[in-house]
Specification:
The complex is a heterodimer. Chain A has 8 helices and 4 strands. Chain A is α+β, with helices and mostly antiparallel strands. Chain B is an alpha/beta fold. Helix content of chain B is 38%, strand content 15%.
């Protein structure tokens, strides 16, 4: 949708009142991200004109900040906290578990564009460490197993049924070898 | 000034029902830490009970009292009686509480503490809780008490009295009061706040800007967040006082984007201050004009560096600048500016309200006042607390925080964020003051204290901090953007079992050249590595020489193995996201090629699956 005349008109509307040298670019970028979910590339020339600067400066600014998105978010974004409290309590395993289950690396989306893993910074909700966030919900403290179950539910996979173990099953198998 | 007296009178009337309630008053802590565990649902459930006529009570939202580990926290005050606090009061527990309140029976089994000097039955006094014992709550006096969205609550409890006093003084007298107090900046650098104000005051070029650095980016630090969302006017008042004292025109409160709740509450505070004539034109009839606004950051750690923040305000990349010129000469938009941390401004409100002598009565001779700290990591009680500077580290992390989990030993305390180092667990008897920390090669910093126990790996922490420093480097200085990258590569190599002796010298070399970076981001990045050489060299050497991670945290140095066949292994196989728990002829094994080392299988079958390195289990 980005690039359509409608989008450009909306961008102009959103940033029309902002002035250069008035501490207003971040405000403008937040407005655009709030409206579109990301900053459409085609907004860059309009921003440059509005702020009396070059598209390169605008792009460089957008690119500099980790909370500003340059691509639309996937349908389901799972945020993984990178903070120290989470790290110490096992977020590394959770990260590997989510990457494997959702089929995407941190900061990327799955091949079908449905799931995205996003790295977020610590916001001090450390009593829930290790935690992830999804749809505005904080989930924690989380084990790797719980992270996998969460990701499977998100993907609509039913729980993999575990065959009921027969008594002495494993031991018998071991003995028969 | 008459204007202030009138505001105060109206505010006193508005606050009276909360000060001395005539019917049951229920407070619900509503801060970031409580919202994420369902405090809004608790509040809604309580309000629904009142509406349904199950309970006759007033229900109010407050900020966060700092007991993050006990959220959602609810405080119930009966007329004429002391308040009782209930912890972990999620919405599902509301009906039980409502029933007890309605029948006027103390819900002992749910109660955390009573806000009185004596216990009530078997419910202990609040001040006797380990987390509260030793706290001196000045900055946090309103946290969990008032509604942060109500300016009248702040006013009625002495708010804006400091501003009112300041406006009757000469700006230089205000600065003198600040200097007299001995307050140094709480953001980490520790420069005397009054001197900064004096620099800006004597600068003649207008417009002049006051900037509040609320870009609390140190992971594990959340004290500024607590002030902004629990008592936003305490910060705002200090900002306006700073504006008056330094003859400034406009203020920017720069809040990190990761803090949505503080953004909303600060904006509301500013709006209300304007409406009451406490900000904007002719403040309290004094003739002083001062504009204040919130600027939302967009996710950049170096914007917490004061010159990085200035660049960010200038509509471009937040790259730290070269100094000089110093901000007082040429700051935001090339104009004279002054930048202080949230806690510094909040303290200024108290210094002007109560006087510098009162303020300086807490703390030590060199380090006066109180300081807020946030506890996280391997600590029993996560939360925010306030103690006099000079309090022993042990008292805060072990006694108040409850220390590391049972059966573990305290390995280290990480203070001051990723550009700082660690304090070994054996040194926690030093006071919380900048000097003793600096002597041990680390920084006290802005208030974050993260605990590590003996199951944590120091190399793992170094990798995390180097990754953070590299990721957040602005890219200006080679010793920073390339130095942190090299250090990260070397550390990852060590953690994967390919470390070599020469790596140690390389790490030390990178540490030395880092001093050449322009800003503290590059200069401070190797501090944690220096701490490791100083305190945990054996552990580092174990990784390098013997390819062994004593804590078994470095994924490249361990593998998962089936040690015993067990029925639980079927569940381990079912949970594995990559099918690495393989069954062959009734026996399970781990396929090392596909295993991602997420630990889920071991969680399912802790007896059957073990973490193994070259030396065995």
């Amino acid at each position: 949708m980005a690039g359509s005349a409608e989008v450009l008109a909306r961008v102009s509307e959103l940033i029309g009142d902002l002035k250069p040298d008035d501490v207003a670019l971040l405000k403008g970028l937040h407005r655009l991200q709030h409206e579109f979910g990301y900053i459409p590339k085609d907004a860059i020339p309009l921003l440059a004109a509005q702020f009396n600067t070059t598209p390169a400066i605008i792009f460089g600014t957008i690119d500099f900040y980790s909370e500003l998105r340059q691509k639309p978010p996937a349908e389901n974004v799972v945020s993984w906290c990178s903070g120290p409290a989470c790290l110490l309590k096992g977020s590394g395993g959770i990260r590997r578990a989510l990457e494997a289950t959702l089929g995407c690396a941190m900061g990327e989306a799955s091949a079908d564009g449905k799931y995205e893993l996003q790295l977020v910074q610590c916001d001090g909700t450390c009593q829930l460490a290790p935690l992830i966030r999804s749809e505005g919900r904080y989930i924690g403290p989380l084990s790797s197993s719980e992270a996998i179950k969460f990701a499977r539910r998100l993907k609509g996979e039913t729980e993999v049924p575990v065959p009921p173990a027969e008594e002495g099953d494993a031991a018998a198998a071991e003995a028969s070898e | 000034m008459a204007a202030y007296e009138a505001l105060r009178e109206a505010a006193d009337a508005a606050w009276a029902p909360f000060e001395k309630p005539s019917r049951t008053l229920i407070r619900v802590n509503l801060g970031t830490c409580s919202l994420v565990v369902g405090a809004q649902e608790t509040l809604d459930a309580l309000r629904a009970s009142v509406q349904a006529g199950e309970l006759e009570a007033d229900v109010m939202a407050t900020g966060c009292s700092g007991l993050c580990h006990a959220e959602p926290l609810v405080e119930v005050t009966q007329p004429g009686g002391p308040s009782v606090l209930y912890g972990q009061l999620t919405a599902d527990r509301v009906p039980a509480l409502v029933e007890r309140i309605a029948s006027r029976v103390l819900a002992h089994e749910m109660a955390l503490a009573v806000a009185a000097d004596e216990p009530m039955g078997d419910v202990p006094p609040l001040g006797s809780l380990p987390f509260m014992r030793g706290q001196v709550r000045r900055l946090m006096a309103n946290c969990g008490v008032t509604d942060p969205l109500e300016i009248d609550h702040y006013l009625a409890r002495g708010g804006y009295e400091g501003l009112n006093k300041a406006l009757r003084m000469e700006p230089e007298q205000v600065v003198a009061e600040m200097l007299e107090s001995g307050l140094w900046g709480r953001g980490g650098a520790g420069f005397p706040t009054g001197r900064k104000w004096e620099f800006l005051r004597t600068s003649e070029r207008h417009p002049k800007y006051i900037i509040c650095n609320a870009d609390e980016g140190d992971p594990g630090a959340f004290v500024n967040r607590n002030i902004m969302e629990s008592d936003p006017h305490l910060l705002l008042e200090g900002v306006i006082i700073g504006g008056f004292a330094s003859d400034a025109d406009r203020a920017f409160i720069y809040i990190r984007d990761e803090y949505p709740v503080p953004v909303v509450r600060m904006e509301k505070a500013i709006e209300d201050a304007y409406a009451k004539g406490l900000a904007g034109k002719d403040i309290l009839g004094s003739g002083f004009d001062f504009e204040v606004e919130v600027v939302r950051g967009a996710g950049s750690y170096v914007c917490g560096d004061e010159t990085g923040l200035l660049s960010s305000l200038e509509d471009r990349r937040g790259m730290p600048k070269l100094k000089p010129p110093f901000p007082a000469e040429s700051g935001a938009l090339g104009q004279p500016s002054n930048i202080n941390n949230v806690e510094s401004y909040a303290n200024a409100s108290l210094i002007l309200r109560h006087g510098s002598a009162w303020w300086a009565s807490a703390g030590t001779e060199e380090n006066r006042g109180t300081k807020m700290f946030s506890l996280s990591g391997k600590v029993e009680r996560v939360g925010v607390l306030e103690v006099p500077l000079g309090t022993l580290t042990r008292q805060v992390v072990v006694e108040m925080g409850g220390g590391v989990p049972e059966g573990r030993t305290l390995k280290a305390v990480q203070s001051g964020g990723p550009l700082s180092g660690v304090l070994p667990g054996s040194d926690v008897d030093i006071p919380l003051e900048p000097g003793p920390y600096r002597e041990r090669g680390t920084l006290l910093g802005a208030g974050g204290l993260v605990l590590l126990d003996d199951s944590d790996c120091i190399v793992d922490l170094c990798i995390y901090f180097q990754w953070f420093a590299e990721d957040e480097s602005c890219g200006r200085c080679t010793t920073c953007f390339a130095g942190t990258r090299r250090a990260l590569e070397i550390l990852k190599r060590i953690a994967s079992g390919r470390g070599r002796e020469a790596d140690l010298e390389l790490l030390k070399l990178l540490g030395r050249i880092a001093a050449n970076a322009n800003c503290f981001h590059g200069q401070g990045a190797p501090t944690v590595i220096a701490s490791t050489f100083r305190y945990f060299e054996d552990e580092l050497m174990e990784h390098v020489r013997h390819k062994r991670c004593p804590a078994k945290r470095c994924a490249g140095l361990v593998r998962y193995e089936v040690l015993h066949q067990s029925e639980r292994l079927a569940e381990a196989a079912a949970i594995c996201p990559v099918g690495a728990v393989v069954e062959e002829g009734g026996a399970y094994r781990i396929d090392q090629e596909s295993c991602v080392k997420c630990d889920a299988c071991r969680e399912q079958a802790p007896y059957a699956i073990g973490l193994v390195d070259e030396f065995g289990v």
